[in-house]
Predict the structure.
Amino acid sequence: MLVKDLYAIVRNGVKPVIEFNEGVYRWWEEAADPLMMARVLDVEYDENELRLLLDLNEFESYNRSVARFDWKDENGEAKLSWFDTIFYPKDGKADFYMPSDLEVSEVFKIKENSDLFSEYLKSVNNSSYVEWLEEQILNYRKG
């Protein structure tokens, strides 16, 4: 799935939980570490990039447990995590920008949501989430 496809999904009311992988460092250097999780609250899209509004609050304890201590302290030693820096958002919400034509899997995976959404992610088709849902309803009505 491309990042731009995530736009329609979130705009249709799905607020997926994502888990970052190593690719996060390519697009968000001063923030999340791999394995950290967040909930996507909102999206904005233009022709070149997508802005995700992420809520980290419900995962803060977990995220602290997987945080890497690779930020340097005043002595130049890598002893701090993202949580110990000025870059961690005080309200637990952060903007994350990604190119719209990037594969989602290069940066994160979608962890959970509804059973229907999980089924959609596993399906092999190029339809949007809403198109897929409509197809499921029509198939259900048929019988």
In short: The longest strand covers residues 37-45.
